[in-house]
Amino acid sequence: MHHLLFLLSLFVVAVTAFTESANCPYKCRCDRRRYVYCNQKHLLDIPSGIPVNTEKLLLSENEIKNDRDTDRQLSRLRSLEILDMHKNKLTAIPTGLPNSLTEISLRNNNIKFVGKSSLKGLSSLTNLELDYNNITNQGLTRLAFADTHKLKELVLSYNALTEFPEGLPNSLVVLQLDNNQISHISVAAVERLTNVRILDLSNNKLVQNSVDPGAMVVMSGLRSLYMNFNQLAEIPTGLPSGLTRLELSNNNIEYIYDTENEVHGSLGRLSSLTTLDLRANKLRNVKDMALSSLRLRSAEFHDNPWQCDCHLRYFKQWLSTATRTTVVSSLSEVSCSSPSAFVGVTLMDLDIEALNCASRTSTRDLMSISNIGPHGFFLNWVNHEDTPDPPFINRQLMYGPLKCQNCSFESSEPAHQVANQEIVSHLSSFSFQDMTTAVQFNPRNASVQVGMLQPNTHYAVCVLDSQQDANSLSINHCRDVWTSAIQPTLTPHDIDDSIPLWIVILCCVAVLLVVVGIISAIVWKRRNLLNTKTPPVYSGNREDPLRYPEAYLPGYTRTMNYMVASPQPRGIMYGTNMTDRTYAECGPATSTNQRSIRRDSAVDARMEFEVLLKPNDDTRPKRLHTPMSSYSDSRDDGTLSTNHTVLSGSHDHGSPPPTYDCLHSFECVGHGHATSLPNDVPPPQLNHETGSYV
After folding, report:
1. What would the mean pLDDT of 173-197 be, rounded to a whole number?
2. pTM (predicted TM-score)
3. Are residues 343 and 368 both part of a single domain?
4. Which domain holds residue 348?
5. Please, what's the b/e burial string for 69-95 (b: 16 or more CB within 10 A of its CB; e: otherwise)?
6. Residues 249, 331: one domain?
7. pLDDT tens for each residue of 68-120
8. Is residue 60, in this structure, part of any structural domain at all?
């Protein structure tokens, strides 16, 4: 009987296996769990004949594309729960997917768009993998997840998102956005994600101002935050207090603060934190009490340029005690990068007494006084280049008048004892106004103005940092300064008396040189004007005294015809003008087209003198004055007419002398008669070499 039942069961199994293999598509493999394996078959399309009751369909690593046949083949599988189509050639999510789907993997495709119909009706979907595609913020619409009310895990890694996507369902628990280009997280994008427990934002482009204030606080359910490989310069602000894991490795974080403000965050509020990863940053210092509230189980601090000075004492003490309950891996790699004396030395190997600051031991060398006046001065502070002060260190300036006017700061007596006894009557505090913050932004130096001081007074000036006790004040923290006396006000008389004699002499010499220069310039200019004047041109209007000497003797009468250009339409007028005056008396006439007659009698007097000084020339006519008796006034109008007689040959006494026409347009003004110059007499010409007329 038992053998019969065993043979019957074998028969049923064989029949079932044969039936299932008969219904399985070509190139695919099916099993009785309703799983169909069509992966890695180089399929171009979804094969037909897939059983409608298939619950899991594996079509990964093929070359399937989007088309109507793909949508039709998938929509008929009404019992399908798991669909794996990763590493195909899809550009969009197939439409019409069955509502029974709970998991979809479409990673490693070329999907660029996820619209409102892509996931429509998938109310049972819990896991969606869309990593390694080309999805952008424009290609991911806000209504794409409107029907996915049960979606728990969404993977959008390795896409092209530049901002935190909006419209994600509030049912999400795991959200992976790593390896994108996200540089901004807004409150509107995360305000619904109160149930997210794991958020991966590593390998993006987040900087300090990328997260809007309060954006992370609304994610109250967040427990694990991954922000590795970004560009954060500070610990993010507003981290949820329920965080248990925080990974911030490979960023640009330099300091760990104990409190939070609008610029930087802190770890003080994260009392539930158990895992902290800050390796491969730019950590230099940790502020006192910054890690005191943490109960870490694992911490990473290696691969950072630690500055091993007095501000790192707290961190060394914390490491010494925390390692009893905390696993600090690679503790041997927590080493010093400065000062130069400790480069490469492991922090745990240094004695705590060796961690000192030059700003405390040699304060006087880092401070200088300038611009000293009667009521104040400037204090210039320069950070030590090897170990600059961290930004959470503030400086406090203390100053006061010295009782002892001749005391010296070279004394080895502690300054606080001298201050209470001899030096300072009272010390008033002066804030440095975040001096070290100014150092970071202004080449590591700071300057502060001190005012309201008494003139001509000896002051003590001391500097401490915010982590120093005032009782630790020593002579090395102080300098002294004398304020200048007030200068008396000078009257104008005092100012004149106070001018040195050499300045007065120099001013007089300068004035004299200026006056001499002006006079020389005027004289030089006048001489140039005289030298550049054009000599008179003898155009034939004057009678040559060498050729016509009779014209320059008294009693000679000449006449000239002249034309007058009348402005009236009467045309040319002719007239005769007679004179009984010499050429030297009447001077040259003006142009014939002018109405006025020039009567400058001294213009050509030079010519008359040339005649008188010229040697006798026998070839020329002799000149002789007529006797006074030859003068007759025969004119009826009472004017005197004088005849100049020239003796030539056998002329009679009463005969008229030879007459000469005035050359060209010469006009002789006077009374008398006019005679004409013979036409065969040539006009005189000027010899430019000798300066005389020929």
Report:
1. 96
2. 0.64
3. no
4. 235-356
5. ebeebbeebeebbbbbbbbbebebbbb
6. yes
7. 999 999 999 999 999 999 999 999 999 999 999 999 999 999 999 999 999 99
8. no
